[in-house]
Amino acid sequence: MLAMLSLSQELSKSLQSETGKLHAIKCDVTKNSDIETAFKWVKDNLGGVDILINNAAVLLISPLTGKSPRQLLVL
Question: Minimal CA–CA distance to 4: which of 33, 29, 25?
Answer without folding.
Answer: 25
